[in-house]
């Protein structure tokens, strides 16, 4: 038995067999209801509980899609800001101004809309280093290309997100990190399909709003406490299922407050 399956079975034994509504209310009040609880209490369209194997598959998907990708996106934005200290400092000042009269740990959901430049920096990093560099899609109908060629129904197409994001006809100097590409004035005439870090259409990433909020929150808090500096080694992009750097992505970190532990 794998450790994941053992955890699921142990959690299943601790769940109540009746009074589910009260159990959920108590969990919600104490903020301890987690993803495994939700899956264990879920029913399919026939009213049947999910099997242990189904729960493990859902948990594995959540961990991959919601954590590896966000970790990659956050790592690359810190790398890009380390290489561009002027942008890093502007982001820091934006966060400091927003939270100047409050406990900096108390970033609220509505605060995230008040960080326009930090958001531009995150988006430009997602363009330059998309966490998921490739996706595949199954054609449900014939697709006629502009030159008249047809991709027939039933074909699986691999779409290069990293290629779309580096198309020089859409993105001049595509290897340059320039957050002002995402200034609203500069984005007016751009196709919405030119920037697809979370894919697009009916099969786009269901968690993209959460992922952006997570990255912006973590980035804002990190910039309040630390300065990020580039390492002497220039990373080489390693596009796999998740975009990584060969040998890891290394940065130097300095505390802004000498007394910070």
Q: Quick gist of this model?
A:
The chain is of the alpha+beta class. The protein has helices spanning 3-14, 20-30, 35-41, 52-83, 85-98, 116-128, 161-164, 184-187, 208-225; strands at residues 134-138, 143-144, 150-151, 156-160, 226-230, 237-239, 243-245, 251-255. The model has no long low-confidence stretch (mean pLDDT 84).
Looking at the overall shape, the CATH architecture is Orthogonal Bundle
Indicate how many domains the architecture comprises.
1
Percent helix, as a range, is 40-55%
Contiguous low-pLDDT stretches (5 residues minimum) are none
Biggest sheet features: 2 strands, antiparallel
**In angstroms, what separates the terminal alpha carbons?**
41 Å
Overall pLDDT: 84
Radius of gyration: 22 Å
Shape: globular
Could you state the order of secondary-structure elements as H and E?
HHHHHHEEEEHHHEEEE
CATH class: Mainly Alpha
For CATH, the homologous superfamily is named as Cytochrome P450
Q: Assign the CATH topology.
A: Cytochrome p450
Going across the biggest sheet, name each strand in turn: 1-4
Strand content: 5-15%
Number of strands: 8
Q: Structural class per helix/strand content? A: alpha+beta
Continuous helix count:
9
Draw up the topology in text.
Layout: H1 3-14, H2 20-30, H3 35-41, H4 52-83, H5 85-98, H6 116-128, E1 134-138, E2 143-144, E3 150-151, E4 156-160, H7 161-164, H8 184-187, H9 208-225, E5 226-230, E6 237-239, E7 243-245, E8 251-255
Antiparallel strand pairs: 1-4, 2-3, 5-8, 6-7
Helix pairs in contact: 1-4, 4-6, 4-9, 5-9
């Amino acid at each position: 038995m794998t450790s994941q399956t053992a955890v699921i079975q142990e959690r299943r034994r601790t769940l109540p067999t009746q009074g589910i509504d009260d159990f959920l209310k108590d969990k919600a009040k104490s903020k301890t209801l987690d993803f495994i609880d939700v899956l264990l209490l879920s029913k399919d369209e026939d009213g049947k509980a999910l099997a242990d194997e189904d729960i493990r598959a859902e948990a594995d998907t959540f961990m991959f899609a919601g954590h590896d990708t966000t970790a990659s996106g956050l790592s690359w934005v810190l790398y890009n800001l380390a290489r561009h200290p002027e942008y890093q400092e502007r982001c820091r000042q934006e966060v400091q101004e927003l939270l100047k009269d409050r406990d900096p740990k108390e970033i609220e959901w509505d605060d995230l809309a008040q960080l326009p430049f930090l958001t531009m920096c995150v988006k430009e990093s997602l363009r330059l280093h998309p966490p998921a560099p490739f996706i595949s899609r199954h054609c449900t109908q014939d697709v006629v290309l502009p030159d008249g060629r047809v991709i027939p129904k039933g074909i699986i197409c691999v779409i290069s997100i990293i290629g779309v994001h580096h198309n020089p006809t859409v993105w001049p100097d595509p290897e340059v990190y320039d957050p002002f590409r995402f200034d609203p004035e500069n984005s007016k005439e751009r196709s919405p399909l030119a920037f697809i870090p979370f894919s697009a259409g009916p099969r786009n990433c269901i968690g993209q709003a959460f992922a952006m909020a997570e990255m912006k929150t973590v980035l804002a808090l990190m910039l309040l406490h630390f300065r990020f500096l580039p390492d002497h080694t220039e990373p080489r992009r390693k596009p796999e299922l998740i975009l990584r750097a060969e040998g890891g992505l290394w940065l130097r970190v300095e505390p802004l407050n000498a007394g910070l532990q």
